Amino acid sequence: MKSVEYKVKNHLIHSEQVEYPDFEKMFNSIQTGELRVVNDVHNRPQRQKTKAAIVLGISLAVMATPVYAALQYDWSDVLSNKSGIESALKAGYGQLIEQSVTAHGVTLTVHNAFVDDNRTVLLYTIKPELETEKQEIRYNQMLLNDSNGQPIEGHYYQKWNAEQGVYQGYFETDWVMQEKQSDLQFSISDVLYLEDLEQEIRLDPKDSSTQQFNIQKNGIDKIEVQSFKYAKGEIMINSEVTFSNSEVKEQSWAGIRAYDTQQEVIKETENPEYGMEGVSGDYFSRQMYNEQQFKEGDRFTFTYTHEKQRTEGTWNLNLLLSRQEMDTGTFKKELNIPIHSLADEASISGMVVTPTQIRLTIDHDEEYFRLPYRTYQLQVDGKVMDGLISLDGKMNANQTELRFEQSNFLMDVKSLVDKPMTLIAKKRVDEHAGSRASIHLTDISTEPKTIASDYEGFPIIWTYYIKDGNLYVESESPDNTFGGVNQTYFLEGEEKHYLVPHFFSELGNKHMDVYKDFKKSDLELYVWNYTTRSQEKELRVSLTGKSL
Question: Residue 267 has what DSSP assignment?
Fold first, then answer.
């Protein structure tokens, strides 16, 4: 079977808000000559061990038996960002499963299931065959199949419980069971035991040019490292890995590790980002360091994840899931509330309230319309819950879903039917198409040059230079109401040549574009689109409608 893609929708697991922008979708859209920012984000925290399991196939059946003397597990750490499931578990909602299957020394157990009108969640544990020594395990596939054997798309998150010697995790999907009960199959195939390897590299921390190091083992060909001025006193280290084995690429985490003279690891100043697509399409990582500490570093290593061993096999559990208990705490409302402050025609069309989650559906005329707010809250009977834009499952191009995790104080769902609810949206960021006004770059060379321009009423400082044959263009504005340039391009005749977005600072508005193998010395540069910020603007919508 094909290896599962570990492209993580991490904000669905560990993110407080939807951020901007999503460069992976930018990269994809550049190939079609159009940039469209779709509601998605890949904010990758340190080590990014949360992985999305994209359901791809069907497994072989294995006999499963109930567990009659079930261990008691504390799920609070695993469910720290799924308060709705944690609250439902504590309140006695959901279905007790306690089914287990053991093969090849590995035991898979499903403990609880939560099936409602918003999602389906399984709580599971996996007792591995081998000692993991705090390393992680993954799987070629983690699958949930419906009663017809069709795969149900979802994602999983798990953490090691050293005391119990198991991985505790949840599998979550926005799939909603239409029947009162249904036969499903949950399975994993091939348990992969991973370890972190370090290889010494002779990195010169004071050299800002591209430094290349041949690895040529464990499916990795080489790594290229570049450094850039990031902010005052900070340096940005970009590393791009070329793999000789595509399967290794799918499961690898890779980056630079720096040590000081005391052989202590030099910590990054911000959360690093791993696993992006690079300029050449390879695995790309970005790390921020204190510039002085990094340049005084004593030793540097290339650190990456490697498959140490694997236990081959398939572990299947046949589950009879019921939505009876969750249905007792569910109601829906039909809404038709226009959002007049948006440029596009949009309205809040419906709400689904379950014991674990509240979901709002927003209809809009424009396909893949991006809501111009970065944070969302739901005020219910005076209490406030934080929410996010849902990116899971099959998306309707003319709909956007906001999801809010339930909390302890909201578990009595039926009592909320007539309680006042208000949607609160903050931190507005609007997108604008660039104009035909150009920025004239002259005498382009390896020597950085800076020019100032007035673009659409905003002062912008442009810095441009050639590095290793590639053109880099940085833009930044002292005006905080300017959100930043999203992408630039130049013309050859009528043909547009897009520069690839390479870096964007959410904290400020600094942006960097790159164009490979640039040969010109002068250039008329155009802005494809840019954003503006209205931090003081707040949207409040009272949610009243007809109960279904």
Answer: P
* 51-97 pLDDT per residue, tens: 322 222 222 223 344 443 345 899 999 999 999 999 888 888 889 99
Residue type, 148: N
**Residue 543 in tokens:** 């949610």
The tokens for 232 are: 């005052």
Report the b/e string of 328-337 with b at 16+ CB within 10 A. ebbebbebeb
Helix intervals (H) in 408-507: none
**Taking a C-beta distance cutoff of 8 angstroms, is the pair 475, 462 a contact?**
yes
Please tell me the pTM assigned to this model: 0.80
For 274, the 3-state DSSP assignment is: strand
Both tokens assigned to 81: 């960002």
> Residue 523 in contact with residue 490, Cβ under 8 Å?
yes
The number of C-alpha atoms within 13 Å of 370 and in the hemisphere containing its C-beta is: 21
> At 41, which amino acid appears?
V
Contact 313, 104 (CB under 8 A): yes
476-503 residue pLDDT tens: 999 999 999 999 999 999 999 999 988 8
How far is 497 from 520, CA to CA, in rounded Å? 13
Query: Which of 282, 229, 276 has the alpha carbon at shortest distance from 465?
Result: 229
